[in-house]
Amino acid sequence: MSLPAELSRQLDLMVEERGLPSRSQLIAELIRNELAEHGATIRPEDTLAGTITLVYRGDMGRVRHQLAQTQTDYLKEVISSQHVFLEDDQSLEVLLVQGPAARLRDLCDSLRKLRGVQQLRLFTTTALLPPLHEQGRDASPSRSKAA
Whole-angstrom Cα distance, residue 61 to residue 49? Predict the structure, then answer.
């Protein structure tokens, strides 16, 4: 693969800063990220797992209530959420999500519309969470019984 000299220099600098063993490892990571994003665009029915990270400020009670309501509307997709307070009356929230790509995009659009949301980013992967419960099967590991 050939790259313009400046792009190659920046790539090598990024490899060094991240402490990676080779340029190939970084290129593979970048390609995987782009393929996941591209796949979500062209195959909206594919199920993806990922995170939604958002920063918001404003009337905390109102915004948090609206965020909770929106998450309730997407109960099948939102696996969990983590919230922390930041300085300057800001909050950071990270949602662990899984579902059809189109549904995850709809969730992001709903969250972006909330007054006070300043930043939002969706990161997805095609690797999925294992089923938490399977119908008709005991979820606990089998134990051998002592005789």
Answer: 29
Q: Determine the Cα–Cα distance for residues 55 and 41; give it in Å rounded to an integer.
A: 24
Q: How many CA atoms lie within 13 A of 16 on its CB side?
A: 6
Contact yes or no for 47/99 (Cβ under 8 A): yes
Q: How far apart are the first and last CA of the chain?
A: 64
Q: What is the DSSP letter of 21?
A: S
3-class secondary structure, 72? helix
Q: Which two tokens stand for residue 52?
A: 């939604």
CATH of domain 45-125: 3.30.70.1150
* Upper half-sphere CA count for residue 25 (Cβ side, 13 Å): 9
Following DSSP, what letter does each residue of 73-124 receive, concatenated?
Answer: HTTTTEEEEEEEE-STTEEEEEEEEEEEHHHHHHHHHHHHTSTTEEEEEEEE
Domain ranges of the chain: 8-40, 45-125
Q: What is the pLDDT of residues 3-36, one digit of tens each?
A: 899 999 999 999 999 999 999 999 988 888 888 7
